[in-house]
Amino acid sequence: MPILDPFSLEFFSKSGEQTRRLGTRLGSALALGDVICLAGDLGSGKTTFTQGIAKGWGSLDIVTSPTFVIVNQYKKPEGTILHHMDAYRLENAEDAFSLDIEYMFQSGALVIEWPDRIKAALPEEYLWIDLTWVDEFQRRMVFSPVGDRYRSLLTAFRQKAFGG
User: Fold this and answer.
1) Integer angstrom CA distances of residue 38 from 63, 77, 131
2) Which stretches within 88-131 are classed as H helix?
3) To 10 degrees, what angle do helices 148-162 and 16-27 make?
């Protein structure tokens, strides 16, 4: 797993199951208020990764793409929410604000697919993950933290996922 800069991480997932397992490790490290941005074309593994995040978060809910409903919510047994937003159908940041994205930042953790469409609505700090379809089984994932919290989160994730 080559490192692009001191804070970024590149990984090639060899299967959907491996992508979900990585998501599970990230989800188990998330805290209230965390924002994960998943950028990538259709079929790059965003929803598969989110399935793992929700499991690691502690939710038993079924994870599906929120393309048509825009936002899904997955709850831990005690009620804490993982919000899952698909910004593909949003025009701009104003649309995200009208969906009360600020409430989502405050009330749980938030995973955003297609975050580039609402970049002006993002908080100052977040974890940006670019997912790229390589072939039928392989996905390239580049994790880029923005801010101290997400550098720490990526360090914790690296420990959980790869040891050392």
Assistant:
1) 15, 25, 7
2) 93-98, 101-107
3) 130
Largest CA distance in the chain: 43
Pick the CATH number of 10-162 from 3.40.50.300, 3.40.50.11260, 3.40.50.1100, 1.10.1060.10: 3.40.50.300
Query: What phi and psi, each to the nearest 5 degrees, are found at residue 64?
Result: -130, 165
Residues 127 and 39: beta-carbon distance below 8 Å = no
Residues 87-128 have pLDDT tens digits of 998 989 999 999 999 999 989 999 999 999 999 999 999 999
Place of tokens 């600020």: 102
Residue spans of the chain under pLDDT 50: 1-2
All structural domains of the chain with their residue ranges: 10-162
Instruction: Give 3-23 as a 3 state SS string.
Output: CCCCCCEEEEECCHHHHHHHH
94: helix, strand or coil? helix
Residues sharing a CB contact under 8 Å with residue 147, sequence separation 6 or more, in sequence order: 124, 125, 126
